[in-house]
């Protein structure tokens, strides 16, 4: 006697159910053969003996909901040596699922699993590099996987291919999202379990997020910074890796300049009396350094301001600057100051990442308004209030940073030559402030098409 059994592969919806006609005196093993023949793609490369069949009775309304929540613990697994009639002595009920078919987990969607392994290898390679922002990988069981990365990320990834992996394992976070929720594997074992869960549920559509948070500026070491920006691969590099920055000096011979110098000297002498320059305290050095900055900015106090502890976040670093020199009209950082107690290499490392971060942060914000606006330079100062180093960071046409470092200017506060050295430091600061304003002034004088383009964009920002 022949009966009709309505079968469904585990994980599929009711729309994929299929009928099988079979004699009651035939074995369950025969039923497996018929099911495989009815579904050649689903069971490609699957041995009949590895297919599991379960007797179920699922009927009524909302069958798909019942299938989602189905537990097989209390169901009968059909034994290959038994006859069909051993399980269905009477005619099976209509409009019910009678047999749930379970393919072997290890071979389910084998082609997709192979593709997933390839993509995971690619993701692991990305984890071993500096990855900025977020990578989204969408994997679907019915189509080839697509790695969807926005244009800016592709550009950054290509640049990173040319750099040593300075950010290797520096805090990358992996998150996986699908219809079931968000999963955050913290090791290889967790990742394996999550992928096995997806495969067992035939759920091969998910999103992978790889996030590499930028780390604090003060965690960067000088060798790591040299490696990151391609300055040197020496494990103990010297400061000679920087090209020399020929920092200009402003003319301080005017009456206004002489008055500013006189006031600065008076401020420094007052601090010597009240707060001696103690080599062990960075805070004391900051008090002295601020006098120079305030004196320099006083020439342009309507255009430039000093922002202590300004927060900057870039691709490679984030944190508060000791001092930011900021344009009042655009709020863009034109210069920054890193005050150190004694470790100048560490100071150069921090200032280098700070300058690059201030430029990339600035360009992101400006580009939202006008892509043609291309301010691509910032300067930095590293000092302990006695030694003064001046730095420059520029971005080329492809957004790659380059850096320069000046020879030091040394101020000895108990030296009879104090005024000359103070004037030299102040002259450099004022010159840098003048240079920072040139893009704005060039448009008014008509100098150069590139400068005019910048200033046109600047006027748009000011007008908003």
Automatic annotation (TrEMBL):
<feature type="region of interest" description="Disordered">
    <location>
        <begin position="439"/>
        <end position="464"/>
    </location>
</feature>
<dbReference type="GO" id="GO:0005576">
    <property type="term" value="C:extracellular region"/>
</dbReference>
<dbReference type="InterPro" id="IPR045379">
    <property type="entry name" value="Crinkler_N"/>
</dbReference>
<feature type="signal peptide">
    <location>
        <begin position="1"/>
        <end position="17"/>
    </location>
</feature>
<feature type="compositionally biased region" description="Basic residues">
    <location>
        <begin position="455"/>
        <end position="464"/>
    </location>
</feature>
<keyword id="KW-0732">Signal</keyword>
<dbReference type="GO" id="GO:0043657">
    <property type="term" value="C:host cell"/>
</dbReference>
<dbReference type="Pfam" id="PF20147">
    <property type="entry name" value="Crinkler"/>
</dbReference>
<feature type="domain" description="Crinkler effector protein N-terminal">
    <location>
        <begin position="3"/>
        <end position="102"/>
    </location>
</feature>
<protein>
    <recommendedName>
        <fullName>Crinkler effector protein N-terminal domain-containing protein</fullName>
    </recommendedName>
</protein>
<keyword id="KW-0964">Secreted</keyword>
């Amino acid at each position: 006697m022949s009966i009709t059994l309505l079968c469904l592969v585990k994980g599929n919806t009711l729309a994929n159910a299929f009928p099988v006609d079979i004699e009651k005196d035939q074995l369950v093993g025969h039923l497996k053969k018929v099911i495989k023949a009815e579904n050649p793609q689903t069971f490609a490369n699957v041995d009949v003996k590895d297919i599991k069949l379960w007797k179920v009775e699922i009927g009524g309304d909302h069958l798909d909901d019942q299938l989602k929540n189905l537990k097989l613990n209390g169901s009968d697994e059909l034994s290959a040596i038994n006859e069909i009639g051993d399980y269905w002595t009477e005619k099976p009920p209509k409009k019910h699922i009678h047999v749930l078919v379970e393919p072997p987990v290890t071979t389910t969607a084998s082609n997709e699993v192979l593709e997933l392994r390839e993509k995971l290898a690619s993701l692991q390679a990305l984890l071993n590099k500096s990855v900025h922002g977020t990578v989204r990988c969408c994997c679907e069981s019915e189509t080839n996987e697509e790695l969807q990365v926005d244009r800016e990320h592709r550009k950054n990834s290509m640049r990173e291919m040319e750099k040593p992996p300075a950010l290797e394992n520096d805090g990358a976070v992996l998150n996986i999202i699908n219809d079931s929720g968000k999963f955050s594997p913290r090791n290889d074992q967790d990742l394996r379990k999550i992928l096995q869960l997806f495969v067992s549920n035939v759920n091969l559509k998910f999103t992978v997020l790889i996030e590499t948070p930028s780390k604090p500026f003060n965690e960067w070491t000088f060798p790591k910074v040299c490696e990151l920006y391609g300055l040197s691969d020496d494990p103990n590099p010297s400061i000679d890796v920087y090209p020399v920055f020929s920092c200009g000096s402003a003319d301080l011979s005017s009456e206004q300049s002489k008055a500013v110098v006189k006031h600065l000297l008076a401020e420094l002498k007052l601090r010597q009396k009240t707060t001696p320059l103690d080599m062990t305290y960075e805070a004391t050095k900051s008090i002295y350094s601020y006098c120079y900055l305030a004196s320099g900015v006083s020439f342009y106090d309507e255009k430039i301001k000093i922002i202590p502890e300004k927060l900057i976040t870039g691709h490679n670093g984030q944190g508060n600057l000791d001092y930011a020199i900021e344009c009042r009209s655009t709020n863009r950082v034109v210069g920054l100051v890193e005050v150190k107690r004694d470790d100048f290499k560490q100071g150069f490392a921090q200032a280098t990442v700070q300058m690059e971060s201030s430029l990339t942060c600035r360009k992101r914000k400006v580009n939202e308004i006008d892509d043609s606006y291309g301010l691509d330079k910032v300067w930095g100062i590293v000092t302990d209030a006695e030694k003064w180093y001046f730095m420059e960071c520029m971005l080329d046409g492809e957004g790659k940073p380059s850096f320069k470092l000046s020879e030091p200017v040394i101020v000895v506060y108990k030296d009879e030559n104090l005024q000359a050295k103070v004037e030299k430091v102040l002259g450099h600061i004022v010159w840098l402030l003048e240079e920072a304003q040139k893009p704005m002034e060039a448009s008014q004088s008509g100098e150069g098409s590139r400068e005019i383009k910048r200033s046109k964009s600047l006027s748009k920002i000011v007008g908003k």
